[in-house]
Amino acid sequence: MFEQNPICRLLNIKYPVFQGGMAWIGTAELASAVSNAGGLGIIGAGNMPADLLQKEIKKAKGWTDKPFGVNIMLRSPFVKDVMNVIVEERVKVVTTGAGNPAEYVPALKEIGCKVIPVVASVALAKRLVARSGADAVIAEGTESGGHVGDITTMALVPQVVDAVDVPVIAAGGIADSRGMAAAFSLGACAIQMGSRFVVSEECIAHPNYKQFVLKARDRSTVVTGRSTGAPVRVLANKLTKEFERLEKEGAPVEELEKLGTGRLRMATHDGDVEKGSVMIGQIAGMLNDIKPVKKIIEDIVNGLPGALDAAGKACD
Ligand code: TUI
Predict the structure, then answer these.
(1) Whose CA is nearest to atom 1 of ligand 1?
(2) Is any atom of ligand 1 closer than 6 Å to the C-beta of 13?
(3) Strands (DSSP E) along 10-156, which ranges?
(4) What 8-state DSSP symbol labels residue 175?
(5) Which is deepest, 62, 63, 302, 310, by most CB within 10 Å?
(6) Strands 190-193 and 221-224, bridge-based pairing
(7) For ligand 1, is residue 149 a contact (CB within 6 Å)?
(8) Distance (Å, rounded) from C-alpha 255 to C-alpha 299?
């Protein structure tokens, strides 16, 4: 299985399954578990200072001999130093998020790093492939958790597939074999999942965070921060109510940004799921159990032929 898959061949991995590079919880623990299970684990640099990221990379190197990646959050104040650490550590795969990584691509390609930006639009996908030489792109729909664009996975993936000549990884709203089969039907050749890995045994998120995700239903998430230019999908709670009230009142961007500062860590590490920012995708409503990473990946991959058959049966 997957011997000819372009992403497995490009990255030398067993299964075409990426773990989304989540800030604060996409740690070496989770990334190495995903890589050891045959997927691509990704350390989420988020707003992490470069020295801390370097420690995570070294930990991951100690825990897996398989390829793993780092996600660079382009809005981070430390992005330049983070880039230097990535070059120094000779990281094999970099994904980027929350912006346009064009200026950083040449330095990464120089060290032989595969560069795979997350895109939320066809225009950026085209630009990054044609002008910057991105090796693949992750087309991420608005179903995702955290920072989001506004096009759904269903509409975005086939349009990106048609627009570029590199492999496309589908992300947003995928958490089981049916989602993987759908992504393949849309022309993607790999998937990226974040939410599913949050409720894994290896994810270091506080137990309150995981339980809040397990309780979520289909309509439990909201997107806040559209007015600040940084829309973020999170589980509705006291924080989002306060945010929405201020947004409606037309509060200045600085006030809204101040309200959001430090809130992700408050949820992921302190376990305050009412005042913290509980980033998660719309598929959270389907997540009902905490499993080891290896089991998550194997269940999805083993269920894929059945899911593809089921789709075929609709044509009988
Ligand atoms: O990056 C993510 N998800 C994230 S980053 C994050 S940390 C954060 N916290 C508060 C505010 C902002 C970030 C939490 N979750 N996903 C990848 C992603 N990238 N989704 C959408 C985009 C994106 C959006 C616009 C990528 C490029 C883009 O282009 C802008 C441009 O310049 O054309």
Answers:
(1) 97
(2) no
(3) 17-19, 41-44, 68-73, 93-97, 114-119, 137-140, 146-147
(4) -
(5) 63
(6) unpaired
(7) yes
(8) 44
